[in-house]
Amino acid sequence: MNNWLAVPIVLPILAAGVLLVARDRAFQRTISMVVLGVNLAVAVVAMVHVARSDSIEVTAMGGWRSSIAITLVADRLSVMMLVIASAVLLMVLVFAIGQGASDERSPLYLPAYLVLVAGIAQAFLAGDLFNLFVAFELLLMSSYVLLTLEGINAQIRSGTTYVVLNVVESSILLVGIGLIFAATGTVNMAVLSQRLAELPDSVALGLNLLLLVAFGIKAAVFPLFFWLPDSYPTAPSSVTAVFAGLLTKVGVYAIIRTETLLFPGGQEQLLLVIGGATMLIGVLGAMSHTQMKRILSFHIISQIGYMIMGIGFGTVAGLAAAVFYLLHHIPVKTALFLVEGIIEKEAGSSSFDRMSGLIHRSGPLAVLFLIPALSLAGLPPFSGFLAKFALVREGFDEARYGVVIVAIVVSLFTLVSMTKIWTGLFWGDVDPKPAAGRVGILRHHRLMSMSTVLLVAVTLLIAALAGPLFDYCEAAARQLTEPARYVRAVIGP
Questions:
Q1: pTM of the model
Q2: Residue 391 in domain
Q3: What are the tens digits of pLDDT across the range 430-455?
Q4: pLDDT tens for residues 181-230?
Q5: Cα four-point dihedral sign 243, 139, 194, 208
Q6: Looking at the domain assignment, is residue 199 inside a domain?
Q7: How many domains, in total, are found in the chain?
Q8: 491 is a domain residue
Q9: Long-range CB contact pairs, 50-53, < 8 A, 24+
């Protein structure tokens, strides 16, 4: 089983190299679909194995000792993230092929997409900090290509902003890793779990804050979020959907690892403050705009705050709620951006002043928007309600009333902003406003519609299977709060 952990990283990289040489579009699409299908199958098998055995699987590359090798580690959290990421990446690729946008027709699109796939898998499986840094660099390089493939001036400007901020993030992370290595003599996270605890409190605090800043930029938390609202709305919808659903969650995942394995219980109060501020700033930004993609971009920030809130509780129940929130949010947010992509493809815009009355043209499209929108707002019986209820309940149990009140208020504002999209784009007059698009949106581009329907179905499946899925998340949280198990699995007793 262990040897298969490298497949979701190595296979996309090799395929990307092949596609750079073989630029036939049909061949590129076929290879990409096969690679993502294999990745999903491997991830599902790994998740089933880890869940049944309640184990942590480790691969030390090259046959070296785990403490010094490039180490891949699969526990409940990492394989769950790998499964949901692989499924989303596959569905978005189907959407992009159906969309037939200029970026997808570029011979560089699919190689860059596969490098992005490898970077995401590597980030979730990395067992050492330098390997995690390399994963972030793969994400940065491929993201810039995907953001700017169409060559539009707005994309170049926003892509430049994205790269500059992520280079800053990479520099901070690299400095942090260098200082950690200087202080401990290792970058292996299992070994660091022991050696960081031996450092003076002031040194450990400084190293912890360095990593939090680096990962906070990647996750777009307050006050490090300012790059996201300008970078994402200019990108093609198939690209924005992946970025919205997955890239910020890589940062959240890294924060979870930092605060449970490397510095357990170190910054709980700070994380609660950051979580509350991130929620509030994000939703206020969403409330102030009238363009669907920009509203959804601000909601990425807002929803990250809920995950940081769960991490800040520092309890098994809080971490379980944060992990379940991750599981729920990735397909929900991706589905919303795919719906926006269908609207933009047919109408040329998703701005309220250029489009209205979509429910009269395409009732199914309205339903595809409404289901994830209500889930994002946290209404029952959708998965978002279950995730937010778990967080709020734990907040009351831990007497964290301030952040709980913020979470409830932000949830109400989220509902208001989703209603704003509903009334602005879907409700209103039957006659299109100037520059509006055609009638019967779902009759065109079957692949776009099919992938969006499947992703919305995934969100409903998460709600229907909430009981066993939350049990899984609780088991993952227990693993996270027992770093000794991680250490034993990687370096032995």
A1: 0.91
A2: yes
A3: 544 444 444 344 444 677 888 899 99
A4: 999 988 999 999 999 988 998 999 999 999 999 999 988 898 888 777 77
A5: negative
A6: no
A7: 1
A8: no
A9: 50/74, 50/75, 50/76, 50/79, 51/76, 51/472, 51/475
